[in-house]
Design brief:
CATH superfamily of the largest domain: Metal-dependent hydrolases
Strand content: 15-25%
Shape: globular
Length: 517
């Protein structure tokens, strides 16, 4: 007897094959049968005629982990049909870290994830992962976070690692891979990770390669040359013999040709992107690289030094001239409680006068008084760039979702639904089966989640059922927290997390450890 029998839906299996009308039986957390199952017994039978039945979506880049533990990202994820998020995006991680290092990491990453709940306790990667297993709404796939690795082994000093420290980073990476990580994530525009030289990255990537894992990189370049950052990632791939994935990459035809040529030359490379013409990160992104020479408390203290501010000012102004020529296209996404919280959702220009007489002064004051907990959205307008990113054959979908503040970037609440509603249905940039493949089997294959991302007997019962005519992202830049609509059922490990359009069981998520690389 099936636990659930979904009848008469259009099954799009995640492989890129076109849809076929079929029934799907779920039993014991697995897909038990696919085909003509009329007359078979089931505890629950649901007629889903007119709906698509497909694998649950896998988000390869989402800053959701603390939000999942708090339960405040459940609807944002499930109402898009997402059943798995990868941990440690951009290398942001909290393990392995000794107590003093952990305190620094918590301060540095609070802008992205918020503070931990007092009831959460961990002292090892395994204990941290135990916080998720059977307690969160969707699955999580662990990755080694390079930011934590380098902070623990080297600290926050802006210098190359010495040989013993590189050996320590390799050992910490090995421990992470042994806990079932699918690979390592690095974020080279964030610190202390950004202090690492290419040789350090190759050294840790060689460990990842031993386990058949993936080297995923937010490449250097937002404050410099993104093409050079891509070349560095490919060099790591070549010299370490490791698969390479590049996070949130929007580029020119020439840049994507570099990826294609590398792939043809033997580097196993892919990338992800999200369907919006806007970026989001912390306000500290506009500070010059030399500023990041210590742990967060030191940086916060330095922001009060007039001499430091004066030295940083030209770099801040240049950042905005180069990347956001109209400061009116830079918006505050999240600010902590205090005198500037009312600026959430407002353009950066409105802080000038309130926080300081110039753009640079306002930025430094905000970062100092808000203890660096300021998130921004940077809008841009280049539809050709968006189309290249979302339709390139090496590209999959990663939301880069952020869940802090009153005005989060809408991508965390709508990216996967937007692919289906906007890129498939409205614009016709992608075929439906191909769009689903980029959100299911493609990321599952990339990150070693072999029993996910497909509808086939024996696969894990992570299943999404949606109306292809009604699925719609509703999150906007004015209302980034509006959840998507049009998803009728979501099953996580065979449990109905969305049932008849209503939130249901929200603790069926598991830690998806990659046991055999």
């Amino acid at each position: 007897m099936f636990d659930w029998l979904l009848t008469s839906g259009t099954v799009i299996d995640g492989t890129g094959s076109p849809g076929v009308r079929a029934d799907v039986g779920l039993e014991g957390g697995r897909i038990a049968a696919v085909g003509s199952l009329a007359g078979r017994d089931a505890r629950r039978t649901v007629d889903v005629a007119g709906s698509v039945v497909c694998p649950g979506f896998i988000d390869v880049h989402s800053h959701s982990e603390f939000s999942l533990l708090r339960g405040d990202a459940d609807e944002a994820r499930l109402r898009q049909g997402i059943t798995t998020d990868l941990l440690a995006p951009d290398g942001f991680a909290y393990t392995p870290a000794s107590p003093s290092r952990l305190a620094d990491l918590l301060t540095y990453l609070e802008v992205f994830n918020g503070p931990p709940d007092k009831s959460w306790e961990w002292s090892s990667p395994d204990e941290y992962l135990a916080l998720f297993d059977g307690r969160v709404a969707i699955n999580v796939a662990p990755q080694v976070g390079f930011l934590a690795i380098r902070a623990e082994a080297v600290g926050w000093d802006p210098r190359p690692a010495d040989p013993s420290e590189i050996g320590h980073m390799q050992e910490l990476t090995r421990r992470g891979m042994e806990t079932g990580a699918s690979g390592i994530q690095v974020g080279l525009d964030y610190f202390p990770a950004g202090h690492a030289g290419t040789d350090e990255l190759i050294a840790v990537a060689r460990v990842v390669a031993e386990y058949g894992g993936v080297y995923s990189s937010h490449v250097r370049g937002i404050r410099g040359d993104v093409a050079a950052g891509v070349e560095e990632a490919l060099e790591v791939g070549r010299k370490a013999g490791v698969a390479v994935h590049i996070s949130h990459l929007f580029g020119s035809d020439e840049l994507y040709q570099v990826l294609t040529d590398a792939r043809d030359g033997g580097v196993d490379v892919t990338f992800d992107a999200y369907p919006y013409m806007a970026a989001s990160s912390h306000l500290a992104f506009c500070l010059p690289g030399w500023f990041d020479d210590g742990p967060p408390e030191r940086l916060i203290s330095k922001l009060g030094d007039p001499a430091v501010r004066a030295a940083a000012a030209p770099h801040i102004e240049e950042f905005y001239r180069r990347y956001v020529p109209d400061p009116g296209n830079a918006y505050f996404s999240a600010l902590p409680a205090g005198p500037y919280q009312h600026l959430q959702g407002r353009p950066l220009t409105e802080a000038i006068g309130q926080a300081g007489p110039t753009l640079a002064e306002a930025v430094c004051t905000l970062l100092a008084e808000c203890r660096m907990r300021v998130l921004m959205i940077y809008r841009w307008n280049d539809e050709a760039k968006l189309r290249r990113a979302m339709t390139h054959p090496l590209g999959m979908v990663g939301s880069d979702g952020l869940f802090r503040g009153t005005h989060p970037h809408p991508r965390g609440f709508g990216a996967h639904a937007r692919v289906l509603a906007d890129l498939v249905r409205a614009r016709g940039w992608l075929e439906l089966s191909d769009a689903i493949r980029r959100m299911t089997s493609m990321p599952a294959d990339r990150y070693g989640l072999g029993d996910r991302g497909v509808i086939r007997p024996g696969a894990a019962a992570d299943v999404t059922v949606f109306d292809p005519d009604r699925i719609q992202d509703r999150a906007t830049f004015d209302n980034g927290r509006a959840t998507a609509e049009g998803v009728g059922y979501v099953f996580v490990n065979g449990e109905a997390a969305i049932e008849s359009g209503r939130l249901s069981h929200t603790s069926a998520g598991r830690v998806l450890r990659v046991s055999s690389h």
